[in-house]
Amino acid sequence: MRVWAEFEKGARLRHIGHLDLMRAMQRALRRSGTPVSYSKGYNPHILLSFASALSVGASGAHELMEVELREEWTLDQFFTQMNAALPEDLRILRCGRLPDGASPLMSRVAAAGWRMKMIRAEDETALLPAVSDFFARDIIPGQRKTKSGMKDVNLRELIEKADILPDGTIEMILSQEEGKTCKPSMITDAMKEVLGLAALPRMELIRTHLYTRDARGQLVPLEETL
Q1: Which of 8, 72, 111, 116 could form a disulfide with 211 if both were Cys (CB 3.0 to 4.6 A apart)?
Q2: Whether the Cβ atoms of residue 112 and residue 53 lie closer than 8 Å to each other
Q3: What is the pLDDT of residues 48-88, one digit of tens each?
Q4: Three-class SS string for 52-85?
Q5: How high is the pLDDT of residue 4?
Q6: Could you give the angle at the alpha carbon of 209 between the alpha carbons of 207 and 211, nearest 5°?
Q7: Are residues 93 and 121 in the same domain?
Q8: Domain of 47?
Q9: Do 167 and 201 fall into the same domain?
C-alpha cells in the first residue's frame, strides 16, 4: 500500500534542511505506529520519498511525500496518528492512496511556485520598481549547476511566470523539469548581479505549490491531481 500525504512546513521550521525534514518524518512514522515498509540490505530505511526537496530557508504550503506500507492501514489512522506525532509547525493536510503502478510523485513535478516578500517596507519601496524591470528583461543572465560544472543560462527561459502582487509579494513559477531546473537562489543571485547590489535585503520565502502538466501540457498544482 502506497500513501501520499500533503503537508505544511511552517515558517518556524524554514531553516530545517531536507535531511532533517526527512528524519523528522521518519521519527513521526515510527512514533505513530504506522506499519511502514523498509528497504532491504545492511542498513534498512523507511521507504519514504518527497516529491521535491525544499530549499533551506523556505517554508512550504503544499509539500508532498509518499510512503510505502507493509499492510493495509486506514487513511484516517494515518492522518490522525501522524499529526499527533508531528510538531506544531509540521502538519499533514490531506492524504490518500496511490493506485498500484502509479508513477512516483517526484517524477511528475514540472515546476514549483514561490512567493518572496521583503521583510522591511523601506527595502520594498526602494527595490520593487527595479525588480519589476528585472523580470521584464528578455535575457536574465544566470548560472545553473550541471554534472560538468557551472553553465551560463538565460533564466528567463526557466521562469514560467513572474508577477509582483499589490502587497509587494513577488510571485514566481520556476521550471523543475530535467535539465531546466531553476531554484530561487538562482533568481536572487541574478537580481543582485543585474541590479548591482552588494547584498539583497532579507526576504520571506515560501514554496506555494508543486506543479505537474496535464494532458494539454498546462501547469496544474500536483496535489489537485491526486
Answers
A1: 111
A2: no
A3: 999 999 989 999 999 999 999 999 999 999 999 999 999 99
A4: CCCCCCCEEEEEEEEEEECCCCCHHHHHHHHHHH
A5: 98
A6: 130
A7: no
A8: 2-106
A9: yes
